[in-house]
Design brief:
By secondary structure, this protein is mainly α. It has helices spanning about 1-30, 45-55, 55-90, 90-105, 110-120, 125-135, 145-170, 175-185, 190-200, 200-215, 220-225, 235-245, 245-280, and strands at about 30-35, 40-45.
Length: about 280
């Protein structure tokens, strides 16, 4: 009983500032609006029907999933060697330095990091300036205001969230297992793919969950480097709230996005449980 009393302030905080607003958002998503976008007392399913039948919003859902999946895959590919280096670095001081380099971007505002990409990718930015001076291009490249710029910025912002779970899985591997594999005649490459990599699958899946969730719901980075016309659901929600003022439709899109992300996370969790069952069973 005493333990629950200790948890009471935290549970109360989450109930007031997470659960209660979420319930209000669900209720709002079913409310009707008039021609002036005023919320009415009546309830309707029209907003959800519009989200899943309108070509514009269906395309936004598909684009959002594509963006999140591509960002997740690139992050995992880049994160694995970085995590391996982080764990296998000789000396505690060097490992501490790598951890500082990995975590330090998280101490900087995502808005500042996104503006740094604008400085790099703009037509008069650093990359175009270098390419022009090296005479590799004749005219500045259009690297901003497109989906590729959004993916590049997303990868940079979310890479640490993929590295840390993989590094945790790598650090938990008993080195004696690797030595046993190699002492039985297996080479380094065979040992990696048959011993090391399978044992780090939980870290990969956990990193995929985190990155996918963040990429699917992020909007400020996409807005700054991709522009407000990018066809992704978070920006559509932003436009409905800030420009159209159709709050129930924005709420319906938010709940729909949340459910889609939960479904993907649930599938990844199921894969993770089955993989761990096979590994330990």
């Amino acid at each position: 009983m005493f333990h629950w009393l200790l948890l009471a302030p935290t549970l109360l905080f989450f109930a007031l500032f997470l659960l209660f607003p979420f319930l209000l958002l669900i209720v709002l998503s079913f409310r009707d609006v008039d021609s002036m976008m005023q919320t009415l007392e009546t309830y309707t399913l029209a907003h959800y029907i519009e989200v899943f039948t309108s070509d514009v919003y269906v395309h936004a859902i598909v684009s959002t999933l594509y963006l999140a999946v591509v960002t997740t895959v690139i992050c995992l590919v880049l994160a694995y060697p970085a995590a391996y280096l982080l764990v296998r670095a000789p000396g505690k001081k060097l490992r501490a330095l790598f951890y500082i380099l990995l975590v330090s971007p998280l101490l900087t505002s995502v808005v500042i990091r996104t503006f740094a990409w604008i400085v790099l990718l703009a037509q008069n930015g650093i990359i175009n300036d270098v390419l022009l001076k090296l005479q590799l291009i004749e005219a500045p490249l259009q690297m901003l205001w497109n989906m590729n710029a959004v993916i590049i910025a997303y990868v940079q912002v979310m890479l640490p969230f993929a590295v840390l779970p993989i590094a945790t899985s790598l650090s938990e591997i008993d080195r004696n297992v690797i030595h046993a594999s190699m002492s039985l005649g297996a080479g380094r490459l065979y040992t990696f793919f048959k011993v090391t990599f399978p044992l780090t699958i939980p870290g990969l899946i956990t990193g995929a969950m985190i990155v996918f969730s963040l990429a699917a719901g992020s909007y400020i980075t996409a807005l700054l480097v991709g522009g407000r016309m990018q066809p992704i659901l978070p920006l559509s929600i932003y436009q409905q709230v800030m420009q159209v003022f159709n709050l129930p439709l924005a709420a319906a899109m938010s709940i729909s996005l949340l459910v889609i992300v939960f479904i993907v996370i649930g599938l990844l969790s199921l894969i993770l449980k089955r993989w761990e069952a096979n590994m330990h069973g």
